[in-house]
């Protein structure tokens, strides 16, 4: 049962109040509607999934949340405040970190450097002090390094810390991207198809990491996925999109039983 | 040692020193190209503009005095002060930062996501605009720049080599200073980019714009930062070139000499800019020394470009540039 204060999950986790709310979002590219009048919320501590067939508008929705797209209509509320249209880097500074479907890492930089960039928004020292007052900047760097090392341990990527990201296999790149997003200590973590293109073993690893992140750091996670099986095991509540419209919203078992969802995924014969 | 060999050594040393002057200009190109993929044609003019501003501030020239005099019929030329070199250099550095901010505001901001060729055209426009602005602000006459750097033959090297080989090498003090300045510049740029958060942000932007945005880096701030640094590098190049040959408008043409340096060293490599400059500098002096007399001289005008052309054929990414592999 969902109330304003939150709810208990089946496995006994306490989910809090509303962290982010999308109100009547409509996004158009020229004459094409990518998203039509969609509303849903994301709650503190929750793993929230957005699913749907290809072209349903899932990635567009994630891009709206992370500021890469600005919707023509609708409101985005974050932590109880209506958000003015802002640039992606401003969204990131508000504490929303993300990964990309096609992986956007800094290929020429080492794994460690990549993850350190995740902490840029948390670093205090200004340009002048970085240039002039070496000591303070150095101390700050060390403190951030410690946090990053913890994340590296947590995601089991110690062995590739110094490797340039460009040389890593796909599955590990995905993990490094997750590490970089985590390094920002986000209030909301957005994962765009975290399991796409992975083999079964890598998928299982990624599932475990997502659950562990949520459990260990209490991070609120919103993810997009089209692998139904994975989503059902992972998430607390699911939004289902089809052709830019919301056709279902609720706990996995409820969504799975929704006839419209079944139709969107399996198709029905026209009588 | 035979005389011919001694001359060759002296010529190569002088070539290396000349090469460093090219490297100083090439460095500015590399910084902007690496961070934004823009080939900044205006880098040479930036150096000219910095040098003009430095001389103007130092000698207390009133900017736009020609225009003011023409409109108001006054006869203003000078504030009547002479600023110490250090103060004038610091002020000029500030002017270059302001210039970077203006360039971002007025030009780059409006050209986000445009084709590289459009941005390149924009920098050509910028180059001519800045050249004109420099002319109107400070006048077109050739100016002497003196910030107190030692010039002329280095007596110590002359004496030591004379005692050792019976032939004194002629090495200009200014060239030696230029070598140290270039080394210090490269060292500080490397430290900045490797060990500070802004350096890391800079490298991140150079690598992937989208990813940089997603970790909270403001691209516009980075553009201003990188153009400021390039402006500062231009100032250093302007000081060195201006001290050597006076501040004149042909200074903007040294940008063209930086081109072969970049082709050799690679457009994205800071060490490449240095090594490329050294190879070009030494190559053209040695070629002139050995082959010049045989084919009628004046080889320095074209040797660098032919060398760069050869490199383009065999190693298009330059010595240190990243190899471009396009997936098909």
The residue fraction in helices of chain A comes out at 25-40%
Query: What ranges of chain A have pLDDT less than 50 throughout 5 or more consecutive residues?
Result: none
Radius of gyration of chain B: 21 Å
Using the alpha-carbon principal axes, give the shape of chain B: globular
Secondary structure: number of strands of chain B: 0
Secondary-structure content class of chain A: alpha/beta
Helix content of chain B: over 70%
In round numbers, the mean pLDDT of chain B is 89
Number of domains of chain B: 1
Strand order of the largest sheet of chain A: 8-9-10-5-11-12
- Determine the number of helices of chain A (DSSP H or I, runs of at least 4 residues): 10
CATH top level class name of the largest domain in chain A:
Alpha Beta
List how many beta strands of chain A DSSP finds: 12
| Architecture per CATH nomenclature, i.e. the level-2 architecture of the largest domain in chain A | 3-Layer(aba) Sandwich
The string of secondary-structure elements of chain B, in order, is HHHHHHHHHHHHHH
What features would you describe in this structure?
The complex is a heterodimer of chains A (271) and B (328). The mean pLDDT of chain A is 89. In chain A, the strands form 3 sheets. In chain A, strands 8-9-10-5-11-12 form a 6-stranded mixed sheet, with helices on both faces. In chain A, 37% of the residues lie in helices and 24% in strands. Chain A is α/β, with parallel strands linked by helices. Chain A has 2 domains: 1-95 and 186-271, P-loop containing nucleotide triphosphate hydrolases (Rossmann fold, 3-Layer(aba) Sandwich), CATH 3.40.50.300; 109-184, no CATH class. Chain B starts with a helix and ends in a 14-residue tail after the last helix. Chain B has 14 helices and no strands.
């Amino acid at each position: 049962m969902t109330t304003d204060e939150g709810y208990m999950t089946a496995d006994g986790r306490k989910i809090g109040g509303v962290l982010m709310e999308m109100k009547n979002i409509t996004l158009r590219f020229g004459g094409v509607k990518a998203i039509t009048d969609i509303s849903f919320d994301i709650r503190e501590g929750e793993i929230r999934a957005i699913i749907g067939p290809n072209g349903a508008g899932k990635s567009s929705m994630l891009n709206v949340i992370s500021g890469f797209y600005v919707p023509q209509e609708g409101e985005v509320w974050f932590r109880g405040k209506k958000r003015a249209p802002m640039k992606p880097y401003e969204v990131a500074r508000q504490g929303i970190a993300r990964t990309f479907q096609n992986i956007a890492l800094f290929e020429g930089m080492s794994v460690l450097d990549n993850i350190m960039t995740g902490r840029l928004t948390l670093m205090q020292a200004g340009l002048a002090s970085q240039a002039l007052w070496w000591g303070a900047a150095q101390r700050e760097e060390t403190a951030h390094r410690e946090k990053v090392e913890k994340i590296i341990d947590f995601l089991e990527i110690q062995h590739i810390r110094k490797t340039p990201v460009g040389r890593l296999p796909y599955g590990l790149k995905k993990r490094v991207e997750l590490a970089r997003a985590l390094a920002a200590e986000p209030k909301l973590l957005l994962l765009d198809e975290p399991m796409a293109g992975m083999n079964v073993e890598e998928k299982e690893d990624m599932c475990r990491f997502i659950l562990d992140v949520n459990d260990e750091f209490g991070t609120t996670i919103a993810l997009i996925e089209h692998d139904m099986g994975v989503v059902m095991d992972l998430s607390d509540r699911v939004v289902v999109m089809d052709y830019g419209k919301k056709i279902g919203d609720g706990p996995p078992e409820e969504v799975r039983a929704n006839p419209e969802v079944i139709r969107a995924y399996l198709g029905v014969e026209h009588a | 040692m035979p005389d011919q060999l001694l001359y060759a050594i002296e010529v190569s040393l002088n070539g290396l020193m000349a090469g460093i002057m090219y490297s100083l200009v090439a460095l500015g190109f590399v910084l902007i190209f690496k961070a934004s993929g823009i080939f900044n044609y205006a880098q040479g003019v930036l150096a000219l503009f910095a040098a003009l501003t430095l001389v103007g501030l130092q000698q207390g020239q009133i900017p736009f005095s020609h225009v003011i005099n023409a409109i108001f019929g006054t006869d203003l030329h000078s504030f009547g002060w002479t600023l110490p070199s250090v103060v004038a250099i610091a002020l000029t550095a500030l002017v270059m930062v302001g210039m970077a901010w203006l360039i971002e505001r007025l030009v780059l901001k409006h050209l986000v996501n445009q084709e590289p060729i459009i941005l390149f055209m924009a920098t050509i426009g910028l180059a001519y605009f800045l050249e004109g602005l420099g002319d109107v602000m400070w006048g077109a006459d050739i100016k002497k720049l003196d910030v107190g750097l030692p010039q002329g033959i280095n007596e110590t090297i002359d004496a030591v080599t004379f005692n050792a080989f019976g032939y004194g090498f002629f090495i200009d003090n200014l060239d030696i200073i230029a070598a140290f300045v270039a080394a210090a510049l490269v060292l500080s740029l490397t430290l900045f980019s490797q060990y500070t958060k802004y350096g890391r942000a800079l490298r991140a932007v150079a690598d992937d714009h989208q990813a940089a945005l997603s970790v909270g880096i403001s691209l516009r701030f980075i553009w201003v930062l990188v153009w400021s640094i390039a402006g500062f590098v231009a100032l250093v190049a302007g000081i060195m070139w201006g001290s050597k040959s006076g501040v004149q408008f042909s200074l903007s043409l040294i940008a063209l000499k930086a081109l072969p340096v970049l082709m050799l060293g690679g457009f994205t490599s800071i060490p490449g800019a240095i090594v490329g400059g050294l190879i070009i500098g030494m190559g053209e002096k040695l070629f002139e020394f050995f082959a010049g007399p045989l084919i009628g001289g004046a080889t320095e005008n074209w040797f660098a470009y032919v060398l760069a052309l050869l490199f383009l054929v065999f190693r298009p990414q330059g010595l240190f540039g990243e190899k471009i592999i396009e997936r098909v």
